[in-house]
Write a structure and sequence with these properties.
About 25% of the residues lie in helices and about 25% in strands. The chain is of the alpha+beta class. Helix 4 packs antiparallel against helix 5 and helix 5 runs antiparallel to helix 6. About 30% of the residues are buried.
Length: about 350
């Protein structure tokens, strides 16, 4: 519904979610959704972007951004060497007083782009977010929890070949050794995504791979998988679970998706939130450019926060409750209070 055209990369459709607590089925809920082939989906987005006139720089990364002549200050902006500020083939003739130089590294070369607006969509450890000065604490009570600002779920997933018939249901698994997180099995047409996400601060003893292998042994023991399936690919990554960033817009810089902290703090889900926040940001960027009024971008701060504050604010409270009570609360009841497939999750909103 977020895209004007049909998207590519949908591999399978699911209709139910089965939730297991310590190997026992706890409930089955309606949960319609789609399983993506992520590489196909991302390739589709890139090609659509280029088709509409965008320039895509492969193997490139953001280093820094600054306003010309700006001295180093508390916001963290630092000018690059003057020799690095050569115009690339994508540079535009904007008014220098309102322009950003964006320093880019591509393979072994470094160069600068000029832009009126910079959108940070560079993930949970966003370098763009780090150059933005935070707002005073508590200015937005539903936003970033500063006591949890280094909190992440770290995930590891294997795509394995199917060895037996498998219903088109997502399966979610909770065990005390997957601290603050959960495991999953997501069915694709010819394979399964088997993975786990755990609070990164809980991995000091066993490590991510060892914890995942322990989870996989539980799946084998409960005959969810056979255990000798061929591994097609692996992937790992972070999901921020501290809430919406205190500042989503600053001057002519705007954050979206994981960069803005828009992951659900309980599920770690972020694909929909990334696309929805991008749609809001794109509309404001277009208006700001066409009217030559950068103040329009400030409206995106309120619009993005208003759109997500109910779901993310509630999930943040549940994350805080989960982390506070994980040591001395009955495990089964704790999961029923803090996982989205149970009625208790939706109470006390």
């Amino acid at each position: 519904m977020l895209y004007s055209d049909k998207i590519k990369g949908i591999n399978n459709e699911v209709s139910y979610m089965e939730t297991y607590i310590e190997g026992k089925l706890a409930n089955i809920t309606g949960s319609r959704g789609y399983i993506l082939d992520r590489n196909i989906f991302i390739d589709f987005l890139i090609k659509e972007f280029v088709k509409k006139g965008g320039d895509y720089l492969s193997s490139a990364g953001f280093i820094n951004a600054y306003h010309p002549g700006l001295e180093e200050n508390s916001s963290g902006w630092q000018p690059v060497e003057e020799s690095a500020a050569n115009e690339s083939h994508i540079s535009h003739n904007f008014d220098n007083s309102r322009m950003l130089y964006v320093e880019i590294r591509q393979n072994d070369s470094t160069f600068c782009l000029k832009t009126k607006i910079l959108a940070g969509a560079d993930g949970p450890c966003s370098k763009v977010a780090k150059i933005m000065k935070p707002l005073p604490r508590n200015e937005y009570e539903f936003q970033e929890n500063h006591d949890m600002e280094s909190s992440f779920l770290i995930g590891f997933q294997e795509n394995i070949t199917k060895k037996k018939d498998y219903e088109n249901h997502t399966k979610i698994f909770f065990y005390p050794f997957i601290s603050g997180g959960y495991g999953w099995v997501f069915p694709k047409k010819e394979s399964l995504n088997v993975g786990m996400a755990v609070n990164i601060n809980a991995l000091k003893e066993n490590g991510l791979k060892n914890t995942y292998q322990r989870f996989k042994r539980e799946l084998v023991k409960n005959e969810v998988i056979k255990g000798d399936e061929y591994i097609n690919s692996t992937i790992s990554g972070l999901a921020p679970v501290c809430g919406i960033k205190s500042r989503v817009v600053q001057n002519n810089i705007i954050l979206i998706g994981d960069s803005a902290g828009l992951c659900n703090q309980i599920t770690g889900a972020g694909n929909y939130n990334a696309a929805a926040s991008a749609k809001i940001a794109a509309a404001k960027i277009k208006t700001a450019i066409t009217t030559d009024n950068m103040e329009i971008l400030n409206e995106a701060q309120k619009d993005i926060c208003d759109y997500f504050k109910t779901s993310i604010g509630h999930a943040l409270k549940k994350r805080q409750f989960l982390e506070k009570n994980k040591s001395d609360y009955d495990f089964g009841n704790l999961i029923k209070k803090t996982w989205v497939s149970f009625k208790d999750y939706w109470r006390e909103r």
